[in-house]
Design goal:
Blueprint: H1 3-14, H2 64-79, E1 87-88, H3 90-97, H4 101-113, E2 117-120, E3 124-127, H5 138-145, H6 150-172, H7 178-197, H8 200-216, H9 221-225, H10 227-234, H11 249-263, H12 267-278
Antiparallel strand pairs: 1-3, 2-3
Helix pairs in contact: 1-7, 1-8, 2-4, 2-5, 3-4, 5-10, 6-8, 6-12, 7-8, 7-11, 8-10, 11-12
Length: 294
């Protein structure tokens, strides 16, 4: 095993991944959306444990009070607990989550940048409709994937990956950088060792780096900008099952075949192998169309 593979596997075992594992699909405690959204704010009467931001580690990933509040409010908005055009009063948020006005203000700015809320003079801060959200933002992808919209989010992610990654693989074949090809080969090696040891965490991390790197080396800056979406998609488990979601010898071989195609400049071969890798299994074939033969 290479030094890189050993280091990555050791690190993965000792760190908290933040990825959903078996049985963790509902790790975010979304409440049922209230029938009447005109009255009191959604957090009134909710689980008391959701009140104090510092109490909950779930989903916070060590981000501090500011990051945890962004996570909490973002989840509530995306889940529908805070419906469109709902006013968000900073004083009420601060009291409910027991954080300072500064933390609330900075958190709302982050959510505004993501398109989830808008702040206007004499109107205040309000939740914006879904059509205004930045649906390509990795946080919103995660919140949707673990909320009531999980099925739609995972289907859309699978369809987007099926569109982006085969093209990226074809383009990457024209950029014969040896160091990148070696890095991709290292990731395949790491995935192989992890699969043999039943180490799903290391496998998923190596897989995420593999696919992100492949997009980044395609030589297309617009595609490169989308690499974060693919990375977020790979961290969302429990969705449509592709070759990446079910580690086995076949999927590992396809990862290796893509690397070989890149080394020989075989763009068509790299694209074909990626399409096979991303083709969903029969039980969810309705989610992503099977690749067409050209």
């Amino acid at each position: 095993m290479s030094t890189l593979a050993h280091t990555m596997m050791t690190t993965a075992r000792s760190a908290d991944s933040g990825l959903a594992g078996p049985g963790e699909l509902d790790r975010y405690p979304y409440a049922e959306a209230p029938a009447d959204r005109v009255g009191a704010p959604a957090w009134e009467g909710a689980d008391p444990e959701l009140g104090r931001v510092g109490r909950r580690a779930t989903g916070s990933r060590g981000r501090g009070l500011h990051g945890q509040l962004v996570q909490q409010l973002g989840q509530m908005i995306v889940s529908g607990d805070l419906g469109a055009d709902r006013p968000l009063v900073p004083e009420e948020i601060g009291q409910r989550f027991e954080v300072s006005r500064t933390v609330v203000r900075e958190s709302l700015r982050v959510l505004e940048a993501k398109g989830l809320v808008s702040a206007r003079p004499n109107v205040g801060t309000r939740v914006r409709p879904v059509s205004d959200w930045n649906l390509l933002d990795p946080d919103i992808i995660e919140w949707r994937a673990f909320g009531p919209q999980r099925d739609d989010q995972r289907r859309e992610l699978s369809e987007l990956r099926w569109t982006i990654e085969p093209l990226a693989a074809r383009l990457a074949a024209g950029h014969g950088r040896e160091e990148v090809q070696q890095r991709l080969a290292d990731m395949v090696e790491i995935m192989g060792h992890a699969m043999a040891q039943g180490d799903a965490l290391t496998f998923s991390r190596a897989d995420a780096e593999y696919h992100t790197l492949l997009i980044q080396v395609a030589g297309n800056r617009m595609l490169e900008h989308l690499s974060g979406i693919v990375s977020a998609a790979l961290q969302v488990s429990g969705g449509p099952v592709t070759g990446c979601d079910r580690p086995n010898e076949a999927s590992l071989a396809l990862h290796g075949r893509i690397v070989d195609a890149l080394a020989t400049g075989d763009g068509a071969g790299a694209e074909s192998a990626m399409r096979q890798l991303l083709t969903v299994h029969p039980e969810v074939e309705r989610v992503v169309p099977a690749p067409r033969e050209h």
